[in-house]
Structures are given as C-alpha cells and as structure tokens.
Design a protein that fits this description.
This protein is mostly helical. The protein has 7 helices and no strands. It starts with a helix and ends with a helix.
C-alpha cells in the first residue's frame, strides 16, 4: 500500500511540475501562502511534543543536529521518530494553503468543493 501511495504522490508532483497542460494552470499571483508558517511550527512540535521523548532527550537531539557530528548513529530511531511525527503534524495542516487560495479566488467548482469537504 505504501508503494501505491508513494507512486501516486510522485505522479501528482510530476504532473504539477512538468506536465505542460497542468503546469500552465498555476497562478503565482494568487498563491501567496508562505509554507514556512506551517513547516516551522510542525517541526518545533515534532521536537517538543512526542510521546517517545523526555525534554532532556529533546535537548540532546537538538545538540546533535546543531553540532552535526558524524556519529549521528546517536539514535537513527530518534531521527526517524521525529520525522514521522513531523509528517503527521504537517499532514494535519497541509490543506490550509488550498483553503486560502480558494478563499482568495472565490472560484470553487463542484469537484474542488467535494474534495475539500471529503478531506475533513
């Protein structure tokens, strides 16, 4: 199932970036949402609010990232846990740029409205 998810995600990204018909529908002037407003807090939350870590472990992990020691064997499980938690938080707010764009354009067709409704 993961392969299907990764394959479909890759196909969507390919079409959005490289397919000449789909690529021309992107309106840069309407898309002014800054993704860093979502990525930064999600990363911070992934470091701080994680069921697997105590605050002391979070400080130790941050030290490893800042120092960039080659011995990052310092718990690959820890890094994977942070990335997994980050992806969960980011997935929860990933629809916000689409909602902001729809609010700005005031152009919502049935298919888009149903898609947003079904996302929750």
């Amino acid at each position: 199932m993961k392969l299907v998810f990764l394959g479909s995600s890759g196909t969507i990204i390919y079409y959005m970036r490289f397919h000449r018909v789909v690529r021309t529908t992107y309106d840069r002037e309407q898309d002014t949402f800054r993704a860093w407003f979502l990525i930064g807090p999600c990363l911070l939350l992934a470091l701080l609010i994680n069921g697997e870590f105590t605050p002391i472990e979070v400080c130790r992990i941050a030290t490893v990232f800042v120092i960039c020691q080659p011995s990052m064997r310092a718990d690959n499980c820890t890094v994977l846990q942070i990335l997994w938690t980050f992806s969960l938080y980011l997935e929860a707010v990933a629809i916000l740029p689409q909602l902001v764009l729809l609010q700005r354009t005031q152009n919502i067709d049935n298919l888009t409205g149903n898609y947003i409704l079904l996302l929750g």
